[in-house]
Design brief:
single chain, about 325 residues, mainly alpha, two-stranded antiparallel sheet, 2 strands, about 0% strand
């Protein structure tokens, strides 16, 4: 449906990430970013949401550039995440910082954000640029909040949700809102699509958290339970902790984890407890609850072929 739009987005990604550093580690990182073939879910959301507006075709070039800016911002955040996490792998590939070096990764991530800001100014994308800047600020706030919660055995579900609404959901919301705004959607439709982006972003993160408990390392492409080892307690763990018996059994493991004494046997025990006391099952229920919320929003939107495509994304993110 939007394949020609996405071809333009890919060209704009290449344009934004263009650089004069060929043959250097920084240049290698930037080339990796330009050629990285991820899900592209954020630019796809921006384009699909723009199709509800009367000006989508007239503003096509502007919209594809904004979609590319979203993806480049996301790629920069992944580079920085790998540096902070000191992650050796992302999915089934070496992380950028392991392959090219930490210094090159830092410089490349910063360069990409600067290039996004350059095109915001050059193309007079003031309102969209403010929304994107706000989303980046929320992403930083979410990561800071998550860091403050590390190894805390009393971390609440409210704190977890607040953190993911920053670090994950903010860019989903911004993608949907910017697409709707720039194509001339009504205020009501903009707000509905904003809500869709938030619900979809939450569901996306819940599912990512769930995969750590339902998929082995070879399929997942990364070390399982890395979040737990790093003191980041995600929805399945927090759901299980609601049961006093589970909490009683998990607290000693969490304390050992805080002291750097958690071994594979302890991690396996933690996983068993989380399964036994409903952490996995209740996370699945939350994903399905958010799927229903997304589907209700889609029903409220004006009749548009984009709704069917958005519905496919919702269903894919809800696969448990």
């Amino acid at each position: 449906m939007i394949s020609d739009w996405m071809d333009s987005v890919e060209s704009d990604i290449a344009r934004i990430s263009a650089h004069p550093y060929a043959g250097t580690p920084v240049g290698d990182v930037l080339d990796w970013a330009a050629c990285s073939k991820g899900k592209r879910i954020r630019p796809i959301l921006l384009i699909l949401c723009s199709l509800y507006g009367p000006n989508c075709l007239a503003h096509k070039n502007r919209l594809t550039l904004l979609a590319a800016m979203m993806e480049v911002t996301h790629l920069a955040s992944l580079i920085h995440d790998d540096i902070v996490d000191e992650a050796p792998f992302r999915r089934d590939r070496e992380s950028v910082q392991r392959r090219f070096g930490k210094d090159a990764a830092v410089y490349a991530g910063d360069y990409l954000i600067a290039r996004v800001q350059y095109y915001q100014a050059q193309e007079n994308l003031h309102e969209a640029g403010m929304l994107l800047a706000d989303a980046i600020q929320q992403m930083c706030a979410g990561e800071i909040g998550q860091a403050r919660c590390r190894y805390r055995e009393d971390v609440t579900m409210q704190e977890y949700l607040c953190n993911i609404r920053g670090k994950t959901t903010a860019l989903f919301r911004a993608s949907c809102r910017i697409g709707a705004l720039e194509s001339g959607c009504s205020k009501e439709v903009i707000e509905q699509l904003d809500r869709l982006g938030e619900s979809l972003g939450c569901m996306f993160q819940f599912r990512d958290d769930l995969l750590d408990f339902t998929t082995d390392k070879e399929v997942l492409g990364k070390e399982t339970h890395k979040d737990f080892r790093d003191g980041i307690y995600t929805m399945p763990v927090l759901m299980a902790m609601r049961d006093p018996l589970a909490r009683e059994q998990l607290l000693p493991i969490m304390r050992r984890n805080r002291d750097g004494q958690t071994d594979c046997e302890q991690i396996k025990k933690m996983e068993t407890i989380v399964h036994k006391y409903g952490g996995v099952e209740n996370t699945k229920k939350e994903i399905l609850r958010y799927r229903k919320r997304c589907e209700e929003i889609l029903k409220m939107l004006p009749a548009n072929a984009a709704s069917a495509e958005l519905g496919k994304i919702v269903r894919k993110c809800a696969q448990v």
